[in-house]
Amino acid sequence: MTEGALQGERQEQIMIVLWHNGEGCVEHVRAGLPARHRGAYSTVQTVPNRLVDRGLPTRERRGKTFVYTAQMTEGQYLSRSIERTLAGASLEARQAALAQLIGTIGTDELSALRRLPPCDHRRQRRPADPRRLPGRDPRDDTAGERGSSLVNSLFLRGAVCFFER
Question: Which residue has the higher pLDDT, 132 or 60?
Answer without folding.
Answer: 60
